[in-house]
Amino acid sequence: MFLSVYAHCSPAGWLKCECAISHYPFGSKAGATKGRSPTPTPNRDNGGGVTVGGAAAGGGVGGATSGGGGATTAGRSTLQANKTILKTVSVFLASGKRNSSNQQSKAAAAALQNKRQLRQRRMEELSGKINPKLLDTLRKKTRFSKDELDALCRIYRKLVSNCQYAAKTLASSSSSAAIAKPHAAVEGIDRIVFRELLHSTFDIVTEEILMERIFCSWDKAHEGLPLRLEGWLIGLSTFLRGTSTERAGFCFRVYDLNQDGFITKDEMFTLLRNCLIKQPQDEDPDEGVKDLVEIVLKKFDLDKDGKVSLEDFMATVSAEPLLIEAFGQCLPTDSAVGSFFSTLQV
C-alpha cells in the first residue's frame, strides 16, 4: 500500500515525498503472511526526515482537530440532555406543588365543613332539638323512646342554661372571676348542676368523693369534662334503665378511685370510713373501718390477690345483687326513677 504525503519542507515550495509504507499485520493479510517489517524509502533530501515527521505531526494536528469537533458535538449533546432533565424536573415540581395545593385546599374545606357541622350540632343541642341522624343513633345506644329523648333534650337545655347563668354570676364576682373564666366558655352540664340534679331528683345522698366519681364516670369518652348531650343521654340510660351488668360496671368505675382497674384496700377504706356512725367512746374509729374492709375484701376477692378486679366484682354482684352498692350509694332508687319518668310529660 502506497501513501502520498505532502509536506511543507522549505519556503521555496511544496515537495512531494513518497513513502512506501507497509500496513500493520492485522490490517493486511499479505503483510501478515510474508512477515515483513515496514521499510521506508530513503529520502535524499536532507530535510526528508523533517518532512516525514512534519507530515506525521500534521496528521496529529488534523486528528486533534477532528477530536475537538467530536468533543464539541458531545458537549452540545450533554448540554441538550441537561436542559431536557431540568425541564422535566421543573414540570415535576410544578405538578407536585399543584397537587400539594389541592390537598391543602381539600383539607381546609373538610375542616371548615366539620366546624360548621359542630356549630350546627351545638345550636341544636342548646335549642333542645335533635338532628334526625343523631336521634336514630341515640335510640340505638339508649333505652329511651323518641318522645322520651325529646323530653330529655328539653331538660338538658334547661340544665345548660342554669350552668351558663351560674357561670355569669360567678364571673360578675371579682373574687371568683379568675376561677369562673375557664368554665364559662365550656358548654354542657358542669359538676355543680349535676350534683344538685342527683341530690334533688334522684335522692343520691352520698359523700363528696363519690359524687365526683359519679360525675367523672358518667361519660367514659369525656371523663371529667362537662356533660354534652350525647354523653348525658347515654349515661342517663345506664343510670335509669341499664341492665344489671351495665349498672354493676358503672358502680365499679365509680369505686375505682385511681382508675387502675382494681378496688384496693386503701380505696375501700376511703369509701367506707364515712359509712360508720362514730361513737363518742370510740378511741380509734379507723380500727372499725379497717375491720369492715377486711370483711368486704374476703367477700369480693375471689382470686385472693388482695384486691378486687372487675371480674371479682361482677361475679360477686351476680351472686348477691344487694352488694352492688357495697361501697356507697351511686344508683337511684326505684321510686326516684318512677317519679322522674312521670315528670317527663311524654
Automatic annotation (TrEMBL):
Outline the extent of the EF-hand domain. 243-278, 288-323
What SUPFAM superfamilies does the entry give? EF-hand
One Gene Ontology term of the molecular function aspect: calcium ion binding
Q: Which PROSITE patterns match?
A: EF_HAND_1, EF_HAND_2
Please indicate if the UniProt record lists Metal-binding as a keyword: yes
**Alphabetized UniProt keyword annotations:** Calcium, Metal-binding, Repeat
Quote the InterPro entries the UniProt record gives: EF-hand-dom_pair, EF_Hand_1_Ca_BS, EF_hand_dom, Recoverin
Transport as a keyword?
Answer: no
Give the span(s) annotated as Disordered: 31-54
- Name used for this protein in its record: Blast:EF-hand calcium-binding domain-containing protein 1
Upper lineage is:
Eukaryota, Metazoa, Ecdysozoa, Arthropoda, Hexapoda
